[in-house]
Amino acid sequence: MALLATAVFAPLPFSVAQPGMTANVLGTNQGTQVINVAGAPVRRTSGQLRMVTIMATGPDARVSLGDVIGNWFRTDRAVMPRDAVYPSGDTVKEIEQHNQAQMQQSQDAATQAALKYLGLSADKVKVTLKLADVGGPSAGLLFTLGIIDKLHGDGNGGDLTGGRNIAGTGTIDADGTVGAVGGVALKTQAARRDGATVFLVPKAECTDAEADLPKGLKLVPVTTLKGAVNALNVLESGKGSVPSC
Hints:
By secondary structure, the protein is α/β, with parallel strands linked by helices.
């Protein structure tokens, strides 16, 4: 009995993740405008571009066998190896610093990709991105689209969103390449919970995104910034076919 109790309550090297917060990058977060632009006129936008997150038990949290079994079969939870969520051997402070550094790199790449796509000079147009309490690189694609919508819209006087509530995830490189991020099955749930009807997903993660996909949420796979913009333009105009998983 003592051995069984020890096995049940002993901490295991896992983290339990769940859908996290979302934030409209075209608006404010915790009272602060997410996208700020100097050196160019900014459009008044409608619709939403929601970046999405997951929340996981902390790196020093005790996850027991009971926690693993209790959450294993839940569609709104995911049991993940702790090393897949937090770098092995890092302290809580080091992990926070690492995540903040990834977020800053993501914001820099998003700004470069957006300005390059629009043919604008970074010497003249200054973009500042502010998003509190979020780390990591997975908001890169949505930051980039938000900057483009603020500065350019769909190119015909309309909004890139077409007035829709659009969510998504994916890293971005300065050249506009979209990369995979992980946790998309939980992120789609967060997106639909907060009203999104369209979800932009890195094409490589289509299978994961389709698992337990909430009703009313359309998946649009992307591999590049240009492809994402084109898909949103097709959604808005209704002319042409939108990529699907």
